[in-house]
Write a structure and sequence with these properties.
By secondary structure, the protein is of the alpha+beta class. The protein is about 20% helix and about 40% strand.
Length: about 120
């Protein structure tokens, strides 16, 4: 059964805001002001999202202050903790943001100003 995945790209944070990315809830409105090359791939059938964005490395501290360190979190994926370990081995810093029943896990390279993310609705 095919899924309903929609991929969208935004050249800047301003474009993402203009096109209501954050209103739709696929990403929280906490990205660094310099964010660019934002990509979201949203599976509308199962309400999960993944994507990436770039930002000025100088904004890492202010961005990471809005996030929590990763700790085991309920998720819809198979072997997520194994995935977390592989991302750590690749040098990613892993942080979490949770809000109103939604979880985002950010995998970032602070010195490069780059993050990947995954998002899902938390089970109640």
């Amino acid at each position: 059964m095919p899924s309903d995945v929609v991929t969208t790209r935004y050249s800047s944070l301003a474009e993402a805001r203009t096109k209501l990315l954050f209103t739709r809830g696929w990403l929280p409105n906490i990205l660094p002001e310099s964010s660019k090359n934002i990509r979201t791939s949203n599976d509308l059938d199962i309400n999960i999202s993944e994507g990436e964005f770039e930002f000025s490395p100088q904004e890492w501290l202010s961005f990471s202050a809005r996030l929590e360190p990763y700790s085991k979190i309920s998720n819809p994926f198979r072997d997520y903790e194994g995935y977390i370990l592989r991302m750590l081995e690749k040098g990613f810093i892993i942080r979490v943001h949770e809000n109103e029943g939604t979880a985002w896990v950010f995998f970032c390279k602070s010195d490069k100003g780059y993050c990947e993310y995954q998002m899902w609705l938390k089970r109640q």
